[in-house]
Specification:
Number of helices: 3
Order of helices and strands: HEEEEEEEEEHEEEEEH
Distance between the termini: 17 Å
Shape: globular
Strand order of the largest sheet: 10-9-8-7-13-14
Strand content: 25-35%
Length: 257
């Protein structure tokens, strides 16, 4: 009976390892202001060059007042992995779309693209949380209020939304408006910080043996771009807990032989 209780405890310990360290269903990246923002806060992976005699560089394009810049950009990304799931998050100054007071229209957020081991656009998650194996994608459109007619910026912005692909299924997705982070400089009394988080089962990719992941996201206007690389390794605490649990199971098996 004692051996059975120890075995049961070891199994629970091992099975619970992937859940340890997570305070909710996705990944606990922390609750501090800095944990959701990174070097991309108020910067961009696009070099906008000179506009109207002013060098913009990699500051998100200020566009036409009062839009642009901090009021209208992608500000950070996080990634984590355990033995069962991949966890992504992105922080932006808008939800699924941002309304432009100048152009009287909404500019949509692009799909979250990612690829493994050097690839960029193998997979995409759309605005409803569907995961696709991407066949083709579109650049930002050439329309009023976008950089779609600027070949240099359009090419730097890269993939905007998936056009065709194979549906692999839906992922866990949640969008949170963070009232305590930043206030909306466009509309007094509102926040302009939204965090979107995704949890993807590794089983959706078949045999999972990837080492790195590249994340890419832009927006309809091409005002900003975020690209980052991460290592795909389970967290050390998860590996240690899982290893201890499985070691206990192995010891009991040897004793029973």
């Amino acid at each position: 009976m004692k051996k059975l209780m120890i075995l049961a405890a070891c199994l629970v310990f091992a099975l619970s390892a992937s859940a340890m360290g997570y305070s909710w269903n996705y990944h606990d990246f922390g609750n501090s202001y800095g944990s959701y923002f990174d070097e991309h806060q108020n910067t961009s992976d696009i070099d906008f060059g000179w506009q109207n005699g002013v060098y913009i560089g990699e500051t998100p394009s200020p566009g036409e007042e009062p839009d642009g810049g901090e009021k209208y950009d992608i500000e950070g990304a996080n990634f984590a992995a355990d033995n069962d799931y991949l966890y992504f998050s992105n922080t932006a100054s808008f939800g699924l779309a941002a309304y432009s007071t100048v152009f009287d229209k909404n500019f949509e957020r692009g799909h979250l693209f990612f690829g493994f081991d050097g690839s960029m656009y193998d997979y995409a998650i759309d605005e409803t949380g569907n995961l696709y194996d991407v066949d083709s994608w579109a650049y930002i459109p050439s329309a009023q209020g976008t950089y779609g007619n600027n070949a240099n910026i359009r090419n730097q912005a890269g993939a905007y939304k998936m056009v065709n692909g194979t549906l692999l299924g839906s992922v866990d997705m949640v969008m949170t408006e963070e009232l305590d982070f930043e206030t909306d400089p466009m509309f007094a009394g509102q926040t302009d910080t939204w965090i979107t988080e995704y949890r993807i089962s590794k089983s959706m990719f078949g045999t999972f043996d990837f080492n790195t992941v590249h994340v890419h996201m832009t927006m309809e206007c091409g005002n900003d771009l975020l690209e980052k690389d991460f290592n795909v390794v389970p967290e050390p605490s998860t590996l240690i807990l899982l290893g201890l649990g499985m070691a206990g199971v192995g010891i009991l098996r040897r004793k029973n032989r």
